[in-house]
Write a structure and sequence with these properties.
Growth Hormone, Chain: A; globular
């Protein structure tokens, strides 16, 4: 059904407020992605088992996110439709961010600290994703098709601005004199305090979101999304039925997502070890050189975020979503492969700027293309199901990571080359997408 009232254009600041909370959520995500392998390696994990620590978080995500989306489609209370789930996810994330970096400081055995860290990571990743989802849904709920590209680009900008804070926190704290070394089996104070700071900023961003975001009441939402009263009163379709009826765009974008998120799983898992080996010439996780490399990984990820922020400005200027999507992934793939040939820590900036182009597109283009193709009635459910195209490739990549690393003779830099190849395949797969529009 066509909407009774087309969604109006929103001012820049309305679009900004819809996504500002993403800034705080992304600080938490950046701290996780840049430091988890470092934390587990410091606790005593073998490089060949590092990827296995990443399996449970996306596995939880693939179960939890569809239910969060479906539940939020049915929710309306004094806090709104999507915002209650932001509050719940952020609250859990804040608690876990204060516990996780202390896994080695509770007097547990090495195996006990590993199990504690594993469970904490599961809750952290799940809660961060729960807090992220409402912002993606809010854009789908409130923004018309004409402005969605701009809205998701703003979200991408705020996401990468948050990443900069998270990635640079440990090296910044090191620069002001906080210790970057710790007793064997414990995490340096620079990392621990970074998680504390990130948790505090996340709390502030959640408060901002509740003050400045106004969600549409059910009746207004129905009018803008063309949902008939009798349809609303019908029994809701199950998620499995909706998945079967999903538009082809859902599946073709999902295929591209598979290659992209597999690639970035390997980046998060193996960059610390790869850079420590190729640039600092060490594999000793207790050495000052390894911890210095760990800080530099944060710098490189920050450079990636800068590249993503700059590239996100140009993405809306391209008329063809598919062309800029494909080009961005190709540039990212070349960036990953170039790491193999670079031993200078500063030249790696070029590689990670290129990788940032891919990240910018991954944050904006899939949701722009997908939300244009689905109606408002089941927006949350479909976005929750679509989270499976983020979680499933991470699960597969993590499960195969140790085996593939063994085939590469334990050289972690080759896992980054593999990431580049995966992104290039993803770039080619963009050609399979056919864009459709549910609400003209």
């Amino acid at each position: 059904m066509q909407p009774v009232h087309p969604k109006p254009d929103l001012s820049f600041w309305r679009l900004w407020n819809l996504s500002f909370g993403f800034f705080g959520v992304q600080i938490a995500y950046a701290l996780q992605s840049a430091n988890i392998s470092r934390i587990f390696a410091t606790l005593g994990a073998d490089p060949h088992s590092l990827s296995y620590f990443w399996i449970l978080p996306p596995l939880m995500g693939i179960v939890v996110q569809p239910f969060v989306g479906a539940a939020s489609d049915r929710t309306w209370n004094r806090f709104g439709r999507r915002l209650p789930y932001l509050l719940l996810g952020a609250a859990i994330a804040v608690i876990v961010m204060c516990l996780l970096p202390n896994a080695g400081s509770f007097g547990l055995s090495v195996s006990g600290a590993m199990v504690f860290g594993f469970i904490a990571l599961m809750f952290l990743d799940t809660s961060i994703n729960m807090a992220m989802q409402p912002f993606k849904m809010l854009v789908g709920d409130n923004v018309n098709e004409k402005q969605k590209g701009l809205a998701y680009s703003i979200q991408s900008f705020l996401c990468n601005a948050g990443s900069l804070v998270g990635y640079l926190a440990p090296i910044t704290l090191t620069a002001i004199g906080i210790s970057n070394l710790a007793p064997q089996g414990q995490v340096p104070d620079t990392v621990t305090y970074s998680f504390y700071i990130g948790a505090f900023i996340l709390v502030l961003c959640v408060i901002y979101s509740f003050i400045f975001i106004r969600e549409m009441p059910p009746k207004e939402y129905a009018e803008f999304h063309g949902i008939k009263e009798e349809v609303k009163e019908e029994k809701r379709e199950g998620m499995l039925k909706l998945l079967v009826k999903a538009p082809k765009t859902f599946w073709t974008v999902g295929l591209v997502q598979f290659f992209c998120w597999s690639a970035f799983m390997y980046m998060w898992t193996y960059t610390p070890g790869a850079i420590a080996s190729t640039v600092w010439g060490t594999t000793d996780v207790s050495s000052a050189a390894y911890q210095a490399a760990g800080n530099w990984v944060g710098v490189l990820f920050a450079v990636q975020a800068v590249g993503s922020v700059v590239w996100a400005v140009f993405i809306p200027r391209f008329k063809s979503h598919k062309a800029i999507y494909s080009l961005s992934l190709l540039l990212g793939g070349l960036g990953f492969i170039s790491i193999l040939f670079i031993t200078n820590q500063y030249l790696l900036f070029i590689s990670y700027l290129l990788i940032g182009c891919a990240w910018a597109a991954m944050l904006a283009m899939p949701f722009t293309i997908l939300t244009n193709s689905i109606s408002g009635k089941n927006m949350g459910t479909y976005l929750g199901l679509f989270n499976g195209t983020i979680c499933l490739p991470q699960i597969v990549a993590a499960a195969l990571g140790g085996v593939i690393l063994t085939c590469f003779g334990g050289l972690q830099v080759w896992m980054l080359v593999l990431a580049g190849i995966l992104l290039i395949v993803g770039s080619l797969s963009v050609n399979l997408i056919k864009e459709t529009y549910a609400e003209e």
